[in-house]
Amino acid sequence: MDKNSLAPHFTTALATRAMQVETILQKLLDERLRAGEIARPERLMAAMRYGVLNGGKRLRPFLVMETAALFGANEEAALRVAAALESIHCYSLVHDDLPAMDDDDLRRGQPTLHKAFDEAAAILAGDSLLTYAFDIIASEETELDAATRLELVLSLARAAGPGGMAGGQALDLMAEEQNPDEAGIITLQAMKTGALIRFACESGAIIGGATRQERERLAEFGSAIGLAFQLADDLLDVTSDAAHLGKAAGKDAAAGKATLVALHGIDWTRNQLAGLVAQAEELLSPFGDKAEILKQAAHFIANRES
Amino acid sequence: MDKNSLAPHFTTALATRAMQVETILQKLLDERLRAGEIARPERLMAAMRYGVLNGGKRLRPFLVMETAALFGANEEAALRVAAALESIHCYSLVHDDLPAMDDDDLRRGQPTLHKAFDEAAAILAGDSLLTYAFDIIASEETELDAATRLELVLSLARAAGPGGMAGGQALDLMAEEQNPDEAGIITLQAMKTGALIRFACESGAIIGGATRQERERLAEFGSAIGLAFQLADDLLDVTSDAAHLGKAAGKDAAAGKATLVALHGIDWTRNQLAGLVAQAEELLSPFGDKAEILKQAAHFIANRES
Protein backbone atom coordinates (compact mmCIF):
# COMPACT_ATOMS: atom_id res chain seq x y z
CA MET A 1 0.00 0.00 0.00
CA ASP A 2 1.39 3.38 -1.00
CA LYS A 3 0.72 5.80 1.81
CA ASN A 4 0.72 8.87 -0.41
CA SER A 5 -2.11 7.73 -2.67
CA LEU A 6 -4.25 6.90 0.34
CA ALA A 7 -3.38 9.84 2.52
CA PRO A 8 -6.14 12.22 1.34
CA HIS A 9 -8.92 9.78 2.27
CA PHE A 10 -7.38 9.13 5.68
CA THR A 11 -6.62 12.78 6.40
CA THR A 12 -10.21 13.72 5.69
CA ALA A 13 -11.55 10.93 7.87
CA LEU A 14 -9.22 11.91 10.72
CA ALA A 15 -10.27 15.56 10.48
CA THR A 16 -13.95 14.60 10.41
CA ARG A 17 -13.63 12.46 13.51
CA ALA A 18 -11.63 15.20 15.22
CA MET A 19 -14.44 17.65 14.54
CA GLN A 20 -17.02 15.26 15.94
CA VAL A 21 -15.04 14.67 19.11
CA GLU A 22 -14.30 18.38 19.50
CA THR A 23 -18.02 19.12 19.35
CA ILE A 24 -18.96 16.55 21.97
CA LEU A 25 -16.07 17.59 24.23
CA GLN A 26 -17.23 21.19 24.06
CA LYS A 27 -20.74 20.09 24.96
CA LEU A 28 -19.54 17.85 27.78
CA LEU A 29 -17.26 20.52 29.23
CA ASP A 30 -19.86 23.23 29.06
CA GLU A 31 -23.52 22.26 29.24
CA ARG A 32 -23.28 18.88 30.94
CA LEU A 33 -21.21 20.08 33.88
CA ARG A 34 -23.87 22.61 34.79
CA ALA A 35 -26.27 19.95 36.02
CA GLY A 36 -24.21 18.09 38.61
CA GLU A 37 -22.49 20.88 40.44
CA ILE A 38 -23.56 23.31 43.12
CA ALA A 39 -21.46 26.22 41.88
CA ARG A 40 -19.45 26.67 38.71
CA PRO A 41 -15.73 26.76 39.37
CA GLU A 42 -15.28 28.91 36.27
CA ARG A 43 -11.51 29.14 36.25
CA LEU A 44 -11.16 25.35 36.66
CA MET A 45 -13.53 24.78 33.79
CA ALA A 46 -11.66 27.26 31.61
CA ALA A 47 -8.45 25.39 32.45
CA MET A 48 -10.08 22.04 31.60
CA ARG A 49 -11.24 23.43 28.25
CA TYR A 50 -7.78 24.85 27.58
CA GLY A 51 -6.25 21.45 28.28
CA VAL A 52 -8.63 19.59 25.99
CA LEU A 53 -9.74 21.94 23.21
CA ASN A 54 -6.27 22.53 21.83
CA GLY A 55 -6.44 21.35 18.24
CA GLY A 56 -4.93 17.91 18.77
CA LYS A 57 -5.09 15.30 16.03
CA ARG A 58 -7.52 13.25 18.15
CA LEU A 59 -5.87 10.04 17.06
CA ARG A 60 -7.13 7.98 20.01
CA PRO A 61 -10.75 9.08 19.51
CA PHE A 62 -10.38 8.28 15.81
CA LEU A 63 -9.27 4.74 16.70
CA VAL A 64 -12.19 4.26 19.10
CA MET A 65 -14.70 5.37 16.48
CA GLU A 66 -13.24 3.49 13.54
CA THR A 67 -12.80 0.23 15.42
CA ALA A 68 -16.35 0.59 16.76
CA ALA A 69 -17.57 1.17 13.19
CA LEU A 70 -16.06 -2.22 12.19
CA PHE A 71 -18.75 -3.81 14.34
CA GLY A 72 -21.57 -1.47 13.36
CA ALA A 73 -21.61 0.01 16.87
CA ASN A 74 -23.81 2.87 18.11
CA GLU A 75 -21.88 5.93 16.92
CA GLU A 76 -23.07 8.27 19.67
CA ALA A 77 -21.88 5.79 22.29
CA ALA A 78 -18.51 5.43 20.56
CA LEU A 79 -18.19 9.20 20.39
CA ARG A 80 -18.67 9.55 24.15
CA VAL A 81 -16.15 6.84 24.92
CA ALA A 82 -13.78 8.57 22.50
CA ALA A 83 -14.30 11.87 24.33
CA ALA A 84 -13.63 10.21 27.69
CA LEU A 85 -10.41 8.68 26.38
CA GLU A 86 -9.27 12.01 24.95
CA SER A 87 -10.00 13.61 28.32
CA ILE A 88 -7.67 11.08 29.95
CA HIS A 89 -5.02 11.57 27.27
CA CYS A 90 -5.15 15.35 27.73
CA TYR A 91 -4.96 15.09 31.53
CA SER A 92 -1.77 13.08 31.12
CA LEU A 93 -0.27 15.73 28.84
CA VAL A 94 -1.17 18.51 31.28
CA HIS A 95 0.47 16.72 34.21
CA ASP A 96 3.46 15.53 32.17
CA ASP A 97 4.18 19.12 31.13
CA LEU A 98 4.43 20.33 34.76
CA PRO A 99 7.80 21.68 35.98
CA ALA A 100 8.23 18.72 38.36
CA MET A 101 7.72 16.32 35.43
CA ASP A 102 8.92 17.06 31.86
CA ASP A 103 8.88 20.83 32.43
CA ASP A 104 7.59 21.84 29.00
CA ASP A 105 6.55 25.38 28.09
CA LEU A 106 5.02 24.54 24.72
CA ARG A 107 2.42 22.04 23.61
CA ARG A 108 1.22 22.08 20.00
CA GLY A 109 2.85 25.49 19.60
CA GLN A 110 0.85 27.00 22.49
CA PRO A 111 1.83 27.71 26.11
CA THR A 112 1.28 24.63 28.26
CA LEU A 113 -1.57 24.83 30.77
CA HIS A 114 0.58 25.74 33.76
CA LYS A 115 2.12 28.55 31.68
CA ALA A 116 -1.24 29.89 30.49
CA PHE A 117 -2.81 29.55 33.97
CA ASP A 118 -0.65 28.38 36.87
CA GLU A 119 0.59 25.13 38.37
CA ALA A 120 -2.29 24.69 40.79
CA ALA A 121 -4.78 25.07 37.93
CA ALA A 122 -2.83 22.53 35.86
CA ILE A 123 -2.82 19.98 38.69
CA LEU A 124 -6.54 20.42 39.38
CA ALA A 125 -7.59 20.55 35.73
CA GLY A 126 -5.67 17.32 35.12
CA ASP A 127 -7.29 15.66 38.13
CA SER A 128 -10.69 16.87 36.95
CA LEU A 129 -10.27 15.68 33.36
CA LEU A 130 -9.22 12.27 34.66
CA THR A 131 -12.18 11.99 37.03
CA TYR A 132 -14.66 13.39 34.52
CA ALA A 133 -13.69 10.73 31.97
CA PHE A 134 -15.19 8.04 34.21
CA ASP A 135 -18.30 10.16 34.69
CA ILE A 136 -18.74 10.38 30.91
CA ILE A 137 -18.40 6.63 30.33
CA ALA A 138 -20.54 5.60 33.30
CA SER A 139 -23.33 8.04 32.44
CA GLU A 140 -26.61 6.76 31.03
CA GLU A 141 -26.16 9.23 28.20
CA THR A 142 -23.53 6.85 26.86
CA GLU A 143 -26.15 4.62 25.31
CA LEU A 144 -24.74 1.23 26.23
CA ASP A 145 -25.99 -1.35 28.73
CA ALA A 146 -24.60 -1.24 32.27
CA ALA A 147 -22.34 -4.28 31.81
CA THR A 148 -20.67 -2.76 28.73
CA ARG A 149 -20.14 0.63 30.35
CA LEU A 150 -18.68 -1.08 33.39
CA GLU A 151 -16.33 -3.13 31.18
CA LEU A 152 -15.16 0.11 29.57
CA VAL A 153 -14.61 1.80 32.94
CA LEU A 154 -12.54 -1.13 34.12
CA SER A 155 -10.46 -1.38 30.92
CA LEU A 156 -9.82 2.35 30.86
CA ALA A 157 -8.87 2.46 34.55
CA ARG A 158 -6.37 -0.33 33.96
CA ALA A 159 -4.95 1.27 30.81
CA ALA A 160 -4.51 4.65 32.51
CA GLY A 161 -3.53 3.57 36.03
CA PRO A 162 -0.36 2.39 37.79
CA GLY A 163 -0.27 -0.83 35.73
CA GLY A 164 -0.62 1.20 32.50
CA MET A 165 0.03 4.79 31.48
CA ALA A 166 0.77 6.27 34.92
CA GLY A 167 3.07 3.33 35.73
CA GLY A 168 4.86 3.80 32.41
CA GLN A 169 5.34 7.47 33.14
CA ALA A 170 6.84 6.55 36.52
CA LEU A 171 9.22 4.07 34.85
CA ASP A 172 10.13 6.75 32.33
CA LEU A 173 11.10 9.18 35.09
CA MET A 174 13.40 6.48 36.48
CA ALA A 175 14.85 5.65 33.08
CA GLU A 176 17.44 8.41 33.06
CA GLU A 177 19.25 6.97 36.04
CA GLN A 178 18.38 3.30 35.65
CA ASN A 179 19.22 3.05 31.95
CA PRO A 180 16.82 0.22 31.04
CA ASP A 181 17.84 -2.38 28.45
CA GLU A 182 15.87 -3.02 25.25
CA ALA A 183 13.23 -5.16 26.98
CA GLY A 184 12.91 -2.51 29.68
CA ILE A 185 12.38 0.26 27.11
CA ILE A 186 9.75 -1.77 25.24
CA THR A 187 7.86 -2.48 28.47
CA LEU A 188 8.04 1.14 29.55
CA GLN A 189 6.69 2.33 26.21
CA ALA A 190 3.97 -0.34 26.06
CA MET A 191 2.73 1.07 29.37
CA LYS A 192 3.38 4.78 28.88
CA THR A 193 1.97 5.30 25.38
CA GLY A 194 0.89 1.82 24.31
CA ALA A 195 -1.78 1.14 26.93
CA LEU A 196 -4.13 3.98 25.92
CA ILE A 197 -3.76 3.28 22.19
CA ARG A 198 -4.43 -0.39 22.86
CA PHE A 199 -7.50 0.60 24.87
CA ALA A 200 -8.65 2.87 22.02
CA CYS A 201 -8.71 -0.06 19.61
CA GLU A 202 -10.03 -2.63 22.08
CA SER A 203 -12.80 -0.31 23.26
CA GLY A 204 -14.28 -0.20 19.76
CA ALA A 205 -14.67 -3.97 19.96
CA ILE A 206 -16.22 -3.72 23.44
CA ILE A 207 -18.67 -1.02 22.34
CA GLY A 208 -19.55 -3.04 19.25
CA GLY A 209 -20.18 -6.26 21.18
CA ALA A 210 -17.42 -8.12 19.31
CA THR A 211 -16.46 -11.72 20.10
CA ARG A 212 -13.65 -12.37 22.56
CA GLN A 213 -11.41 -13.34 19.63
CA GLU A 214 -12.14 -10.18 17.65
CA ARG A 215 -11.59 -8.09 20.75
CA GLU A 216 -8.19 -9.69 21.33
CA ARG A 217 -7.27 -9.10 17.69
CA LEU A 218 -8.15 -5.41 17.91
CA ALA A 219 -6.22 -5.09 21.16
CA GLU A 220 -3.15 -6.61 19.46
CA PHE A 221 -3.62 -4.22 16.57
CA GLY A 222 -3.61 -1.44 19.16
CA SER A 223 -0.40 -2.73 20.71
CA ALA A 224 1.33 -2.86 17.31
CA ILE A 225 0.39 0.67 16.31
CA GLY A 226 1.06 1.88 19.87
CA LEU A 227 4.64 0.69 19.63
CA ALA A 228 4.86 2.20 16.12
CA PHE A 229 3.55 5.48 17.51
CA GLN A 230 6.33 5.62 20.10
CA LEU A 231 9.06 4.61 17.64
CA ALA A 232 7.90 7.31 15.24
CA ASP A 233 7.89 9.77 18.14
CA ASP A 234 11.46 8.88 19.13
CA LEU A 235 12.49 9.13 15.49
CA LEU A 236 10.94 12.59 15.19
CA ASP A 237 12.80 13.67 18.31
CA VAL A 238 16.12 13.08 16.53
CA THR A 239 15.15 14.06 12.96
CA SER A 240 12.79 17.01 13.40
CA ASP A 241 12.92 20.49 14.90
CA ALA A 242 10.74 22.40 17.33
CA ALA A 243 8.96 24.46 14.67
CA HIS A 244 7.80 21.26 12.99
CA LEU A 245 6.84 19.46 16.19
CA GLY A 246 5.13 22.32 18.00
CA LYS A 247 7.11 21.27 21.06
CA ALA A 248 10.73 21.02 22.08
CA ALA A 249 12.82 18.62 19.94
CA GLY A 250 16.01 16.71 20.74
CA LYS A 251 14.93 16.43 24.37
CA ASP A 252 15.52 12.69 24.67
CA ALA A 253 19.11 12.89 23.50
CA ALA A 254 19.76 15.96 25.64
CA ALA A 255 18.40 14.12 28.67
CA GLY A 256 20.46 11.05 27.79
CA LYS A 257 17.18 9.14 27.71
CA ALA A 258 17.36 5.57 26.45
CA THR A 259 15.17 5.02 23.37
CA LEU A 260 15.20 2.24 20.79
CA VAL A 261 16.32 4.80 18.22
CA ALA A 262 19.32 5.72 20.38
CA LEU A 263 20.06 2.02 20.87
CA HIS A 264 19.71 0.80 17.25
CA GLY A 265 19.84 3.85 14.98
CA ILE A 266 17.51 5.41 12.43
CA ASP A 267 17.59 2.71 9.72
CA TRP A 268 16.78 -0.08 12.15
CA THR A 269 13.88 1.99 13.49
CA ARG A 270 12.45 2.58 10.01
CA ASN A 271 12.62 -1.16 9.34
CA GLN A 272 10.87 -1.90 12.61
CA LEU A 273 8.15 0.58 11.73
CA ALA A 274 7.57 -1.12 8.38
CA GLY A 275 7.34 -4.47 10.15
CA LEU A 276 4.82 -3.15 12.67
CA VAL A 277 2.65 -1.71 9.90
CA ALA A 278 2.68 -5.09 8.12
CA GLN A 279 1.76 -6.80 11.38
CA ALA A 280 -1.07 -4.31 11.98
CA GLU A 281 -2.44 -4.93 8.47
CA GLU A 282 -2.27 -8.68 8.95
CA LEU A 283 -4.24 -8.40 12.20
CA LEU A 284 -6.96 -6.51 10.34
CA SER A 285 -7.16 -8.93 7.41
CA PRO A 286 -10.26 -10.84 8.67
CA PHE A 287 -12.24 -7.59 8.48
CA GLY A 288 -11.52 -7.09 4.76
CA ASP A 289 -12.30 -3.77 3.10
CA LYS A 290 -14.14 -2.44 6.13
CA ALA A 291 -10.76 -2.09 7.86
CA GLU A 292 -9.15 -0.06 5.07
CA ILE A 293 -9.20 3.21 7.02
CA LEU A 294 -7.55 1.53 10.02
CA LYS A 295 -4.77 0.21 7.79
CA GLN A 296 -4.23 3.75 6.60
CA ALA A 297 -4.14 4.86 10.21
CA ALA A 298 -1.29 2.40 10.85
CA HIS A 299 0.65 3.90 7.93
CA PHE A 300 -0.05 7.40 9.12
CA ILE A 301 1.15 6.64 12.64
CA ALA A 302 4.38 5.05 11.42
CA ASN A 303 5.18 7.79 8.91
CA ARG A 304 3.84 10.95 10.55
CA GLU A 305 5.98 14.04 10.54
CA SER A 306 4.66 15.80 13.66
CA MET B 1 -26.85 11.69 74.16
CA ASP B 2 -23.67 12.27 76.16
CA LYS B 3 -20.71 11.81 73.86
CA ASN B 4 -18.32 10.80 76.60
CA SER B 5 -20.33 7.81 77.77
CA LEU B 6 -20.63 6.53 74.22
CA ALA B 7 -17.17 7.37 72.98
CA PRO B 8 -15.51 4.04 73.88
CA HIS B 9 -17.94 2.01 71.77
CA PHE B 10 -17.54 4.33 68.82
CA THR B 11 -13.77 4.59 69.11
CA THR B 12 -13.44 0.81 69.10
CA ALA B 13 -15.74 0.49 66.10
CA LEU B 14 -13.81 3.18 64.21
CA ALA B 15 -10.48 1.48 64.98
CA THR B 16 -11.85 -1.90 63.89
CA ARG B 17 -13.11 -0.55 60.59
CA ALA B 18 -9.79 1.27 60.08
CA MET B 19 -7.93 -2.01 60.55
CA GLN B 20 -10.19 -3.76 58.05
CA VAL B 21 -9.72 -1.08 55.43
CA GLU B 22 -5.97 -0.91 56.06
CA THR B 23 -5.73 -4.65 55.42
CA ILE B 24 -7.66 -4.55 52.16
CA LEU B 25 -5.74 -1.46 50.98
CA GLN B 26 -2.46 -3.23 51.62
CA LYS B 27 -3.71 -6.21 49.66
CA LEU B 28 -5.00 -4.05 46.82
CA LEU B 29 -1.81 -2.01 46.60
CA ASP B 30 0.45 -5.02 46.68
CA GLU B 31 -0.86 -8.33 45.38
CA ARG B 32 -3.65 -7.16 43.11
CA LEU B 33 -1.53 -4.75 41.11
CA ARG B 34 0.82 -7.55 40.09
CA ALA B 35 -1.72 -9.10 37.75
CA GLY B 36 -2.60 -6.23 35.44
CA GLU B 37 0.73 -4.65 34.79
CA ILE B 38 3.63 -5.51 32.53
CA ALA B 39 6.37 -4.28 34.85
CA ARG B 40 6.25 -3.12 38.45
CA PRO B 41 6.91 0.58 38.79
CA GLU B 42 8.26 -0.05 42.29
CA ARG B 43 8.91 3.53 43.31
CA LEU B 44 5.43 4.62 42.19
CA MET B 45 3.86 1.82 44.18
CA ALA B 46 5.92 2.71 47.24
CA ALA B 47 4.71 6.30 46.86
CA MET B 48 1.09 5.12 46.53
CA ARG B 49 1.45 3.04 49.68
CA TYR B 50 3.06 5.98 51.50
CA GLY B 51 0.15 8.19 50.49
CA VAL B 52 -2.50 5.72 51.63
CA LEU B 53 -1.09 3.64 54.48
CA ASN B 54 -0.47 6.57 56.78
CA GLY B 55 -2.53 5.84 59.86
CA GLY B 56 -5.52 8.01 59.01
CA LYS B 57 -8.72 7.73 60.99
CA ARG B 58 -10.46 6.19 57.95
CA LEU B 59 -13.62 8.09 58.68
CA ARG B 60 -15.00 7.89 55.14
CA PRO B 61 -14.48 4.11 54.92
CA PHE B 62 -16.15 3.80 58.34
CA LEU B 63 -19.18 5.68 57.02
CA VAL B 64 -19.38 3.48 53.91
CA MET B 65 -19.27 0.32 55.99
CA GLU B 66 -21.66 1.40 58.72
CA THR B 67 -24.26 2.81 56.33
CA ALA B 68 -23.99 -0.38 54.25
CA ALA B 69 -24.48 -2.42 57.44
CA LEU B 70 -27.79 -0.61 58.02
CA PHE B 71 -29.11 -2.44 54.98
CA GLY B 72 -27.44 -5.77 55.70
CA ALA B 73 -25.14 -5.32 52.70
CA ASN B 74 -22.33 -7.65 51.59
CA GLU B 75 -19.47 -6.58 53.89
CA GLU B 76 -16.66 -7.54 51.49
CA ALA B 77 -18.25 -5.39 48.79
CA ALA B 78 -18.63 -2.47 51.20
CA LEU B 79 -15.01 -2.85 52.24
CA ARG B 80 -13.79 -2.56 48.66
CA VAL B 81 -15.91 0.50 47.99
CA ALA B 82 -14.57 1.94 51.24
CA ALA B 83 -11.01 1.27 50.09
CA ALA B 84 -11.68 2.94 46.74
CA LEU B 85 -13.10 6.00 48.44
CA GLU B 86 -10.12 6.21 50.81
CA SER B 87 -7.82 5.96 47.80
CA ILE B 88 -9.57 9.00 46.30
CA HIS B 89 -9.46 10.87 49.60
CA CYS B 90 -5.73 10.20 49.95
CA TYR B 91 -5.00 11.24 46.36
CA SER B 92 -6.66 14.56 47.12
CA LEU B 93 -4.51 15.05 50.23
CA VAL B 94 -1.33 14.23 48.29
CA HIS B 95 -2.13 16.75 45.55
CA ASP B 96 -3.43 19.39 47.98
CA ASP B 97 -0.16 19.24 49.92
CA LEU B 98 1.95 20.05 46.82
CA PRO B 99 3.94 23.31 46.82
CA ALA B 100 1.75 24.76 44.05
CA MET B 101 -1.35 24.06 46.15
CA ASP B 102 -1.40 24.31 49.97
CA ASP B 103 2.37 23.74 50.26
CA ASP B 104 2.32 21.57 53.38
CA ASP B 105 5.37 19.76 54.75
CA LEU B 106 3.52 17.72 57.36
CA ARG B 107 0.53 15.42 57.21
CA ARG B 108 -0.49 13.47 60.31
CA GLY B 109 2.89 14.35 61.83
CA GLN B 110 4.84 12.79 58.96
CA PRO B 111 6.55 14.40 55.94
CA THR B 112 4.07 14.86 53.10
CA LEU B 113 4.56 12.63 50.05
CA HIS B 114 6.43 15.19 47.96
CA LYS B 115 8.80 15.73 50.93
CA ALA B 116 9.39 12.01 51.51
CA PHE B 117 9.75 11.32 47.74
CA ASP B 118 9.61 14.23 45.30
CA GLU B 119 7.02 16.31 43.49
CA ALA B 120 6.85 14.13 40.39
CA ALA B 121 6.22 11.07 42.55
CA ALA B 122 3.48 12.93 44.42
CA ILE B 123 1.75 13.99 41.21
CA LEU B 124 1.91 10.49 39.71
CA ALA B 125 1.00 8.68 42.92
CA GLY B 126 -2.04 10.95 43.28
CA ASP B 127 -3.07 10.33 39.68
CA SER B 128 -2.60 6.60 40.19
CA LEU B 129 -4.61 6.45 43.42
CA LEU B 130 -7.43 8.32 41.73
CA THR B 131 -7.44 6.04 38.69
CA TYR B 132 -7.02 2.88 40.72
CA ALA B 133 -10.11 3.71 42.80
CA PHE B 134 -12.30 3.23 39.73
CA ASP B 135 -10.49 -0.02 38.94
CA ILE B 136 -11.29 -1.30 42.44
CA ILE B 137 -15.00 -0.45 42.27
CA ALA B 138 -15.49 -1.69 38.69
CA SER B 139 -13.70 -4.98 39.33
CA GLU B 140 -15.67 -8.23 39.56
CA GLU B 141 -13.95 -8.83 42.87
CA THR B 142 -16.26 -6.18 44.29
CA GLU B 143 -19.10 -8.63 44.60
CA LEU B 144 -21.97 -6.50 43.35
CA ASP B 145 -23.94 -6.70 40.13
CA ALA B 146 -22.79 -4.62 37.17
CA ALA B 147 -25.56 -2.03 37.50
CA THR B 148 -24.68 -1.35 41.16
CA ARG B 149 -20.95 -1.08 40.51
CA LEU B 150 -21.66 1.29 37.64
CA GLU B 151 -23.92 3.41 39.85
CA LEU B 152 -21.08 3.63 42.39
CA VAL B 153 -18.54 4.59 39.72
CA LEU B 154 -20.82 7.34 38.50
CA SER B 155 -21.62 8.70 41.97
CA LEU B 156 -17.98 8.65 43.00
CA ALA B 157 -16.82 10.33 39.79
CA ARG B 158 -19.38 13.10 40.37
CA ALA B 159 -18.46 13.50 44.04
CA ALA B 160 -14.73 13.70 43.28
CA GLY B 161 -14.77 15.60 39.98
CA PRO B 162 -15.08 19.23 38.86
CA GLY B 163 -18.68 19.43 40.13
CA GLY B 164 -17.58 18.02 43.52
CA MET B 165 -14.32 17.82 45.44
CA ALA B 166 -11.96 19.02 42.69
CA GLY B 167 -14.30 21.90 41.89
CA GLY B 168 -14.46 22.82 45.57
CA GLN B 169 -10.70 22.81 45.80
CA ALA B 170 -10.56 25.14 42.80
CA LEU B 171 -13.08 27.49 44.44
CA ASP B 172 -11.02 27.35 47.63
CA LEU B 173 -7.88 28.47 45.79
CA MET B 174 -9.84 31.45 44.49
CA ALA B 175 -11.35 32.23 47.88
CA GLU B 176 -8.40 34.25 49.17
CA GLU B 177 -8.81 36.89 46.49
CA GLN B 178 -12.53 36.59 45.85
CA ASN B 179 -13.62 36.64 49.50
CA PRO B 180 -16.84 34.64 49.14
CA ASP B 181 -19.87 35.50 51.28
CA GLU B 182 -21.54 33.04 53.65
CA ALA B 183 -23.45 31.26 50.89
CA GLY B 184 -20.27 31.07 48.84
CA ILE B 185 -18.33 29.52 51.72
CA ILE B 186 -21.05 26.94 52.37
CA THR B 187 -21.15 25.96 48.69
CA LEU B 188 -17.37 25.74 48.50
CA GLN B 189 -17.24 23.50 51.56
CA ALA B 190 -20.14 21.33 50.44
CA MET B 191 -18.11 20.62 47.31
CA LYS B 192 -14.59 20.47 48.74
CA THR B 193 -15.14 18.27 51.80
CA GLY B 194 -18.87 17.60 51.78
CA ALA B 195 -19.18 15.73 48.48
CA LEU B 196 -16.98 12.75 49.45
CA ILE B 197 -18.56 12.42 52.91
CA ARG B 198 -22.00 12.57 51.31
CA PHE B 199 -20.90 9.88 48.85
CA ALA B 200 -19.56 7.75 51.73
CA CYS B 201 -23.00 7.69 53.36
CA GLU B 202 -24.99 7.41 50.15
CA SER B 203 -22.79 4.59 48.83
CA GLY B 204 -23.75 2.38 51.79
CA ALA B 205 -27.36 2.72 50.68
CA ILE B 206 -26.42 1.96 47.06
CA ILE B 207 -24.39 -1.12 48.06
CA GLY B 208 -27.22 -2.29 50.30
CA GLY B 209 -29.89 -1.91 47.64
CA ALA B 210 -31.83 0.67 49.69
CA THR B 211 -34.97 2.38 48.41
CA ARG B 212 -34.65 5.72 46.65
CA GLN B 213 -36.06 7.41 49.76
CA GLU B 214 -33.59 5.73 52.14
CA ARG B 215 -30.76 6.56 49.83
CA GLU B 216 -31.74 10.23 49.76
CA ARG B 217 -32.00 10.22 53.57
CA LEU B 218 -28.50 8.78 53.94
CA ALA B 219 -27.14 11.29 51.43
CA GLU B 220 -28.67 14.12 53.48
CA PHE B 221 -27.16 12.64 56.62
CA GLY B 222 -23.83 12.71 54.79
CA SER B 223 -24.31 16.37 53.86
CA ALA B 224 -25.08 17.32 57.46
CA ILE B 225 -22.05 15.58 58.93
CA GLY B 226 -19.92 16.78 56.01
CA LEU B 227 -20.70 20.38 56.90
CA ALA B 228 -20.11 19.57 60.59
CA PHE B 229 -16.76 18.04 59.65
CA GLN B 230 -15.66 21.25 57.94
CA LEU B 231 -16.93 23.51 60.74
CA ALA B 232 -15.06 21.39 63.30
CA ASP B 233 -11.97 21.60 61.10
CA ASP B 234 -12.17 25.38 60.88
CA LEU B 235 -12.71 25.54 64.63
CA LEU B 236 -9.65 23.39 65.26
CA ASP B 237 -7.61 25.66 63.04
CA VAL B 238 -8.23 28.57 65.43
CA THR B 239 -8.30 26.69 68.76
CA SER B 240 -5.63 24.00 68.40
CA ASP B 241 -1.88 23.84 67.77
CA ALA B 242 0.30 21.93 65.33
CA ALA B 243 1.42 19.27 67.83
CA HIS B 244 -2.21 18.36 68.44
CA LEU B 245 -3.26 18.46 64.80
CA GLY B 246 -0.26 16.72 63.25
CA LYS B 247 -0.28 19.48 60.66
CA ALA B 248 0.17 23.22 60.57
CA ALA B 249 -2.41 25.18 62.61
CA GLY B 250 -3.68 28.73 62.24
CA LYS B 251 -3.16 28.55 58.48
CA ASP B 252 -6.61 29.85 57.55
CA ALA B 253 -6.29 33.00 59.60
CA ALA B 254 -2.72 33.56 58.41
CA ALA B 255 -3.90 33.23 54.82
CA GLY B 256 -6.84 35.55 55.50
CA LYS B 257 -9.09 32.72 54.33
CA ALA B 258 -12.81 33.23 54.79
CA THR B 259 -14.37 30.55 56.99
CA LEU B 260 -17.68 30.49 58.82
CA VAL B 261 -15.73 30.57 62.09
CA ALA B 262 -13.95 33.76 61.01
CA LEU B 263 -17.30 35.22 59.94
CA HIS B 264 -19.41 34.30 62.99
CA GLY B 265 -17.04 33.38 65.81
CA ILE B 266 -16.47 30.34 67.97
CA ASP B 267 -19.72 30.30 69.97
CA TRP B 268 -21.90 30.55 66.87
CA THR B 269 -19.92 27.69 65.32
CA ARG B 270 -20.38 25.47 68.37
CA ASN B 271 -24.12 26.13 68.22
CA GLN B 272 -24.22 25.28 64.54
CA LEU B 273 -22.38 22.05 65.22
CA ALA B 274 -24.93 21.07 67.86
CA GLY B 275 -27.73 21.81 65.39
CA LEU B 276 -26.12 19.71 62.67
CA VAL B 277 -25.69 16.77 65.04
CA ALA B 278 -29.38 17.01 65.99
CA GLN B 279 -30.31 17.12 62.32
CA ALA B 280 -28.12 14.10 61.58
CA GLU B 281 -29.75 12.14 64.41
CA GLU B 282 -33.19 13.07 63.17
CA LEU B 283 -32.35 11.83 59.67
CA LEU B 284 -31.33 8.48 61.14
CA SER B 285 -34.41 8.08 63.32
CA PRO B 286 -36.29 5.72 60.96
CA PHE B 287 -33.45 3.20 61.33
CA GLY B 288 -33.82 2.99 65.12
CA ASP B 289 -31.14 1.30 67.22
CA LYS B 290 -29.30 -0.04 64.17
CA ALA B 291 -28.15 3.52 63.47
CA GLU B 292 -26.71 4.09 66.96
CA ILE B 293 -23.09 3.92 65.82
CA LEU B 294 -23.75 6.43 63.04
CA LYS B 295 -25.25 8.85 65.56
CA GLN B 296 -22.09 8.50 67.59
CA ALA B 297 -20.12 9.20 64.43
CA ALA B 298 -21.97 12.48 64.03
CA HIS B 299 -21.05 13.45 67.60
CA PHE B 300 -17.46 12.43 67.06
CA ILE B 301 -17.17 14.48 63.89
CA ALA B 302 -18.62 17.58 65.50
CA ASN B 303 -16.51 17.33 68.66
CA ARG B 304 -13.23 15.86 67.46
CA GLU B 305 -9.97 17.35 68.67
CA SER B 306 -7.69 16.44 65.76
From TrEMBL, chains A, B:
Xref: SUPFAM superfamilies: Terpenoid synthases
Pfam families associated with the record:
polyprenyl_synt
- Listed cofactors: Mg(2+)
**Does this entry carry the keyword Magnesium?**
yes
Q: Does the keyword Lipoprotein apply?
A: no
- What keywords appear on the UniProt entry? Isoprene biosynthesis, Magnesium, Metal-binding, Transferase
This protein's superkingdom? Bacteria
Record-stated family: Belongs to the FPP/GGPP synthase family.
The record's NCBIfam families line, in alphabetical order, gives:
FPPsyn
> What protein name does the entry list?
Polyprenyl synthetase family protein
